[in-house]
Amino acid sequence: MSDDGKAEIRLATAADAAVIARIHMTSRVATMPYLPPQKRDHDQVTRWAEDVLLTTCRVWVAVRGAEILGYAALEGDMLEHLYLRPDARRRGLGTRLLDEVRRHSPGGVSLHVFQQNTDARAFYERHGFTVADTSDGHRNMENLPDMTLRWTPDSAR
User: What is the residue range of the signal peptide feature (predicted)?
Assistant: First the structure.
């Protein structure tokens, strides 16, 4: 199913924190079942979104009507997060959020992805990201092997 361009991409505000937290939590459970169970509840993740995410990153949300369907967070040239509601996946919203991030990153974008996250890896590879390095998991709190992917405007088709 396609988004048909009906969703708007806008900068997130503090009022969006609770919905961003819900999307973050539900998407991780649905798309990364290999992760350990979440230790933080919705209120704690909302506080993280308010106090950390929205203060250290530029955050965009994909909105249709009054519903937030996903978000992307960029810190410098590092894409820290791109999550969609599980029922909003595969509609072009991730691409639209990624395009917004790339518009604000003229020198390129990097990100970390778990090696097991084959859907995300395929998504980013389709959008011109290449493997910059790999890790045994020592640099993430889940201790799972990950990869750094990089996109630069020169690598775009």
Answer: none
